[in-house]
Amino acid sequence: MISWRKHYKKGLIAIGLLLSTSASIYGQDGDPKNGEKLFKANCTACHALDKQVVGPALKGVVARLEKDQGLGKDWLYKWIKDNKALRASGDKYANEVFEKFNKTEMQQFPNLTEKDIDDILAYTTNPPAPEEPKKDAGTATATDGAQAAPANNTTSNIVIISLLAIAGLLVWILLKLRQLVKLGQSEDLAGLNETRVKSFSEIYAKYHYVGKGLLAVLAILATYGVWNWIMWIGVYKGYKPEQPIYFSHKIHAGENKIDCQLCHSSAKYGKVSEIPSMNVCMNCHRTISEYNGKYLEPGKDKAFYDGEIQKIYAATGWDSEKQQYTGKTTPVEWTRIHNMPDFVYFNHAQHVVAGEQAIINSFNKKNPDNKIDVVCKACHGKIDTMNVVQMANDFTMGWCIECHRTTEIDMNNGYNKEYFKNLHEKLKKQYPKDGGKITVDAIGGLECGKCHY
């Protein structure tokens, strides 16, 4: 009996050692959660877990390498830290991988420690389950639908009762009208009919002063209405057209914190803020072929976003399976939202560079409960909260003038300090309001030629 127990304990120890060795071999001696962070920070530009991107799919790479090539994690340490040196050493498999993937040289990561690499490999071996996407406010769930069903029934009953009440009222009115018709045909009203005014001319002759007054009021209201209509031609505040490819600024600029100028690169140093080319989209979506974000807009699911990414591929002629361009492109006909008239000159660079901090400070001073952090939002609204971009302001001449009259200039910044060097004292005397504070109108912000030329 003692001998059996002794061998049983040895067997358990052996199994435990085997399992621990196995776990070590297949990358389980790292931290998958930390590995996920490192993987997303360093690897996702070229790799995905479950499919080939620029490089091969990495899920189960440790076990696959051990099984197919008989190589362990020591080889992966060398490959990840300095694959160029590994290839230069004549390593057969390193050179085979290089040739297989079109001689695309992998980035070197000498900054990653062996512990970091262990964490990444643990993530590729056993990735944590993805979190459920969060739904925006207003997104209905199945439970919400079940709870809303009784409320819907109640609403339907109220509508039916209201319609029956209206029908009853209409029947009552018809009956009363019938009684009035009969009364009109009776002899009792014969005397009254004789005293009635027979024509409009008689009414006008009797009440012509009142009539002229009403006509004058109507003429004034009509003139005001026409003038107001003319003044608002071309003002499209709230305009938000559908685009051929759905693009959510809330996901890109809000959830993912992508800087505006990464896509709109000419907004800071150019006259206009250009519409990004599809190649700008492909800088990221060359390796992001599906939506795995945590945010879902109401009424939309992952399949919807994946379909829009496929539209990008169709427009640029990108074959995600072969990881190459086909050469067959399709222009995208975007619908323009913000469009200055031809007779108006507006320079983005002048506002974004010279006026950036002044505009932000002025806006936040006027809107303490709705502050902004980037100058773009002063005119375009909080784009990072918009799923569909819309015109947030009037963009009328009056709107621009009001901004020029209230935006205080920072006379101490490098540009203004040098350019207005000899005008500081003169301007302070000429514009003594608010303790000598100088607004844009003081330096020509209201001159017609500044915007109309």
Order of helices and strands: HHHHHHEHHHHHHHEHEEHHHHHHHH
Number of strands: 4
Note the gap between the termini.
106 Å
CATH class of the domain at 2-125: Mainly Alpha
Name of the CATH superfamily of the domain at 2-125: Cytochrome c-like domain
Spatial strand order of the main sheet: 1-2
Mean of all residue-level pLDDT scores: 81
Percent helix, as a range, is: 40-55%
Task: Describe the SSE topology.
Blueprint lengths: L1 H24 L6 H11 L18 H9 L3 H16 L3 H9 L13 H12 L8 E2 L6 H43 L5 H6 L4 H7 L1 H24 L17 H7 L4 H4 L14 H8 L9 E2 L5 H15 L1 E2 L4 E2 L22 H7 L1 H11 L9 H5 L16 H10 L7 H6 L4 H7 L2 H4 L11 H4 L2
Parallel strand pairs: 1-2
Antiparallel strand pairs: 3-4
Helix pairs in contact: 2-6, 4-5, 13-14, 15-16
Report on this structure.
Keywords: Heme, Iron, Membrane, Metal-binding, Signal, Transmembrane, Transmembrane helix. This is C-type cytochrome. The chain is mostly helical and 453 residues long. Among the domains are: 2-125, Cytochrome c-like domain (Cytochrome Bc1 Complex, Chain D, domain 2); 249-325, no CATH class; 348-451, no CATH class. The protein is built from 22 helices and four strands. Strands 1-2 form a two-stranded parallel sheet. The N and C termini lie far apart (106 Å).
Which tags fit this structure?
453 residues, mainly alpha, two-stranded parallel sheet, two-stranded antiparallel ribbon, 2% strand, electron transfer activity, membrane, Cyt_c-like_dom, C-type cytochrome, metal-binding
Summarize this structure briefly.
This is C-type cytochrome. With 453 residues, the chain is mainly alpha-helical.
